[in-house]
């Protein structure tokens, strides 16, 4: 099976990012912070957006974070609950390692969805 990360799978609008960050449920570990909010259509595939603050580092470091997070989502999107929008950002002072990010994204997505259901 071929996994992609096209426009339909991205959170693109500023209002969608803001809504997820303000009203979504949050889950975090030592590497990432993930916000989840129920999507408008419950049958849509999971969508993800990445936000990297400038305090994270220079442009090279921020782009590395984005590449690793997007690739982790792309490869594990079949394990992530559908019908939700996710916004991911790195934890302050965390280092981008592939192994930790790859494990964190699906685990935090499931944890955040459980919290959305309990609200």
UniProtKB/TrEMBL annotation:
InterPro entries: Ribosomal_Su5_D2-typ_SF (IPR020568), Ribsml_uS5_D2-typ_fold_subgr (IPR014721), RNase_P (IPR000100)
GO molecular function: 3'-tRNA processing endoribonuclease activity; ribonuclease P activity; tRNA binding
Keyword Hydrolase appears in the UniProt entry: yes
Catalytic activity: Endonucleolytic cleavage of RNA, removing 5'-extranucleotides from tRNA precursor
Enzyme kind, highest EC tier: hydrolase
E.C. code: 3.1.26.5
Keyword Hydrolase part of the UniProt annotation: yes
GO biological process: tRNA 5'-leader removal
Pfam family, one: Ribonuclease_P
Keyword line: Endonuclease, Hydrolase, Nuclease, RNA-binding, tRNA processing
GO CC terms of this entry: ribonuclease P complex
Source organism, top-level taxon: Bacteria
Described purpose of this protein according to its UniProt entry: RNaseP catalyzes the removal of the 5'-leader sequence from pre-tRNA to produce the mature 5'-terminus. It can also cleave other RNA substrates such as 4.5S RNA. The protein component plays an auxiliary but essential role in vivo by binding to the 5'-leader sequence and broadening the substrate specificity of the ribozyme.
Quaternary structure (record): Consists of a catalytic RNA component (M1 or rnpB) and a protein subunit.
Homology family: Belongs to the RnpA family.
Protein name as it appears in the record: Ribonuclease P protein component
Organism, scientific name: Rubripirellula tenax
Taxonomic lineage from the root: Bacteria, Pseudomonadati, Planctomycetota, Planctomycetia, Pirellulales
